[in-house]
Write a structure and sequence with these properties.
binds manganese (II) ion, five-stranded mixed sheet, 10 strands, alpha+beta
Length: about 500
């Protein structure tokens, strides 16, 4: 991969934008990473350019691509945050720092991992990132890491593969980035479950080939049918189901292939919403639909924002075939999710106000994520509106900080929380007996506010008891309630 390829790819989306910041990041990285190599023998620059290229595919702006190129600088070179700030300004420094910061959150033991824990980590990563571009760079970084995973020792392969399946692919899904989610899952699948992967590959090969040939024959016919009814078409193509999502569907149905009708589907892209419904009408007029398989995700989008019409019909020669009908914008959104939302918003803004800068609105991005998360969580988790509101309050109406236990577990606390809050959050016994605190190896007093990213170690003494003064500086209800409970009891 060369810098020119990255810039050409970027220019396909933003033909008139200034690309000098990308070039500047490239020159800087080249100098500081010098001839560093990755485990697969490729130069470090290859990884950085690949990451930036993926960000270009997501139609992100020049600033984000530059941050993508610089994302490993703090970890692998002696360069400091201050130097990045001087060289590239606050925004890029913030992105690079956040990326280095979220690396501390690690998925550790596969067996001790449950869905609740995974959900917690996903939430933490999203809110920790503050700016959604941090997550997007992380996803691009991870995608390229998986592409070169063969070079790592088996133990690391497994850890990264499971972490991807449990944490990063679901985040990509939640943000509606279907394309990256599918790629992440399929790459991780082969390392996480190699035996199952090979088995599926064997079973699927012929079916995919047959399906593709069938679709290739169907498309010209379909074009004629639609043209006759006066429907204009942007594009028609076949799409194959990703392996991992197929595997999960099969596991769900006891490996029974009979219910799988969407192995290869036909995707029809039309100019506007009216044409979507008109196309659906034409297809149903011509071929009988299967009951219960007509889905209107335009009227009722999926929680992650996905929109399309789906239908499955008895098509040519009785072959059961799934159709997915959508506009070009819906297609873009289905592939690039939140990044596409951003892109469309930038375009709108530009045409209205003739903004020359493509600097994205951080606030806008946060709002989109927030809305999408809320939609999702609202559907999935909350029994009552009160529950939902409480959780919203906890997660978003307060500013949060994230600190670490010496083992690397993340503890999420409100701003200005102290060691007492931390201790009670870990365990009430630890809270009751906490006598002092070490932060990043240095002793601090119990009432000093903790800061984002600190590693906190509580010093415990058996004869230590809770102190009423703690109520004055503890910030969490949990700590206050435990201290009061202790006094009531004693
Ligand atoms: Mn990296």
């Amino acid at each position: 991969m060369t810098l020119e390829q990255v810039i050409d790819n970027f220019k396909e989306t933003y033909p008139f934008d200034d690309t000098s910041i990308i070039k500047q990041a490239y020159d800087f990285a080249l100098e500081v990473h010098k001839d560093q190599k990755r485990l697969n023998g490729e130069p470090m620059m290859e990884h950085l350019l690949q990451t930036a290229y993926i960000l270009g595919d997501l139609k992100l702006d020049a600033t984000t691509l530059a941050a993508g190129i610089l994302h490993d600088v703090l970890e692998y070179t002696p360069i400091t945050l201050k130097q990045i700030k001087n060289e590239f300004g606050e925004e890029i420094a913030f992105l690079v720092e956040s990326l280095t910061f979220i690396k501390k959150v690690k998925y550790r033991d596969k067996d001790k991992f449950n869905e609740r824990e995974a959900e917690k980590i996903r939430k933490i990563l999203i809110s920790m990132a503050q700016d959604i571009r941090v997550i997007l760079i992380k996803l691009a970084d991870r995608l390229h890491n998986l592409k070169t995973l063969y070079a790592l020792p088996e133990k690391n392969q497994k850890r990264l593969a499971f972490e991807t399946l449990e944490i990063y692919a679901p985040i990509a899904d939640r943000l509606g980035i279907g394309e990256i989610k599918g790629q992440l899952e399929d790459l991780a699948f082969s390392y996480a479950y190699p035996k199952e992967y090979q088995e599926l590959l064997g079973q699927v090969k012929n079916r995919y080939t047959k399906g593709k040939i069938y679709i290739q024959r169907l498309i010209p016919h379909l074009k004629k049918v639609l043209a006759k009814e006066g429907i204009s078409i942007v594009e028609i193509h076949g799409r194959s189901k990703h392996y991992y999502s197929l595997y999960r569907k099969l596991v769900h149905s006891d490996m029974d292939w009979h219910g799988i009708f969407d192995l290869v589907a036909v995707r029809i892209i039309v100019p506007d919403i009216e044409s979507c419904y008109a196309t659906l009408g034409v297809i149903h007029k011509r071929w009988k639909p299967l009951m219960g398989r007509i889905k209107d995700y335009i009227a009722v989008p999926k929680p992650n924002g996905y929109r399309s019409l789906h239908t499955t019909v008895f098509c040519q020669g009785g072959q059961i075939t799934e159709f997915q009908i959508r506009t070009a914008q819906m297609h873009e959104e289905a592939e690039n999710g939140i990044a596409a939302n951003w892109y469309y918003n930038e375009i709108k803004k530009k045409s209205k106000t003739k903004l020359t800068s493509t600097c994205p609105s951080q606030k806008l991005m946060q709002e989109i994520v927030l809305v999408k998360q809320l939609q999702e969580w609202q559907k999935q988790r909350f029994a009552s509106p009160q529950d939902f509101f409480n959780s919203l309050k906890i997660d978003y109406l307060q500013k949060r900080i994230f600190v670490f236990t010496p083992k690397g577990d993340v503890i999420n606390l409100p701003e200005n929380a102290t060691s007492v809050d931390f201790a009670y959050n870990v365990h009430s016994d630890i809270g009751d007996h906490c006598a002092g605190t070490k932060v990043d190896g240095r002793l601090i007093s119990l009432n000093s506010p903790l800061k984002n990213g600190q590693v906190v170690e509580i010093i415990i003494q058996k004869n230590q008891k809770p102190n009423k003064d703690w109520l004055k500086f503890s910030k969490t209800n949990r700590a206050k309630a435990r201290i009061r409970a202790w006094y009531n009891k004693n």
